[in-house]
Structures are given as C-alpha cells and as structure tokens.
Amino acid sequence: MKKRDILLAGGIVLVALVMLLVMHVTGETKGDQVQVTVNGEIYGTYPLEKDQTIEVTEGEFHNVIRIEDGQAYMEEADCPDGYCKEQGRISGQKQTIVCLPHKLVVEVIRQKDTDSKAVDDDLVPDTIAK
Ligand SMILES: [Zn+2]
C-alpha cells in the first residue's frame, strides 16, 4: 500500500466518523416536536425549535398554530368557542392544546425525555428478588 492510499483511506474513515457524529448530534437536538392531530389522525409533526406557522384547513375548519421561541400556541381558530386560543403556550412533554369543535390536538413530544426515561426504566432492578 502506498502512503497516499493510506492517507486516502484514513481520510474516508475520518469523513465517515464526522458524518456519523453530525447525524448523531442533529438527532439529539431534534428531540422536541409538535404533533398536530386532526380527527384522530396525525396531520403533521414539526420541530419545536424552528419558528413557523402551521395552517390547518380541514373541511370548513381553519386553525393556525404558531411555533415561536420553542413554544406552540393557537394563533387563530374559527371554532365557535375559541377555547383553544385561551389555552396558552405549550412547550413541555405531554402538554396539549385541544380544539374540541375541530377535533384538533396539538401536542408536544420531547423525544429526548422519553428516550432517557426508557433507559432509566431498564436500569431499575425491580425483579432482582427471588
Ligand atoms: Zn378551537
């Protein structure tokens, strides 16, 4: 093997390692998601870290969900009670905004939390006693 080949092989390994690392890191930071469910079906999942506006139009219903500063809230809704707009901002695990007339649910899913919890559960020695 020539010296140049060894350098090339080393470079490829290095690039692969860096890519793995980058993918791992982005996977970690993409933990927090906002899941929008309409009529019991998942309408879409959106990263909580990215400011954006989600427009949901389903039949005659119209809802506008806003994600801002890592928090989600109902910006606009044409439901008769308007209760969903009064439910404030959500950013934590299992927090929800519900628009009952539109059967629309906005839920925060923190992937990181559920993952670490699953690991913790596995570590609990609850069946050692015989
Ligand atoms: Zn509503």
Automatic annotation (TrEMBL):
Record Pfam families: NusG_II
Q: Which InterPro entries match?
A: NusG_2_sf
What this protein is called in its record is: NusG domain II-containing protein
Which organism does this sequence originate in?
Answer: Blautia faecicola
